[in-house]
Amino acid sequence: MDLFLMRHGRAEHHAPSDAERALTAEGVELLRGEALGLKRLGVSFDAILASPMRRAQQTAAEIRDSLDLEIEIGTCRGLASGEHDQVLIELGAYGGESVLLVGHLPLISELASRLLYGDERGDISFEPGSLLHLSIDRAPQPSCSALHWHLTPKQLLLIGEAD
Cβ neighbours of residue 124 under 8 Å, at least 6 residues apart? Predict the structure, then answer.
């Protein structure tokens, strides 16, 4: 399985609750530019799972729509609660050749560290809109993956703008 871990795009700082924080207009535009970079790289997704929080759901929808994918966005509650085992269970049940998970800090960084190194102590940087690509040879479990690349939003934008 090709697994992609993404931190949600730039979001507003204030909202009635953390779960309701929405993407900013700039965050939406940046994600659309990043999607152009993904198209140039030939990246597509069979499944997209996102945290139930508004900004993650919006990020997932912008990526899906920008890539012209006709798939439903699944909700992965573990991506909001910080329950690593729950994320792995939900991911294992979902399947797919190429899956995008959209979440938040610190969970998305901890999850990447767990999949790569077997524990959550690794400090893997995820600025808003960053994307990490792993491959998993068997059912998701700690220390079961290989890193292909980790791109910042600026790098994805530059790839999308390249001639």
Answer: 109, 112, 113, 116, 132, 150
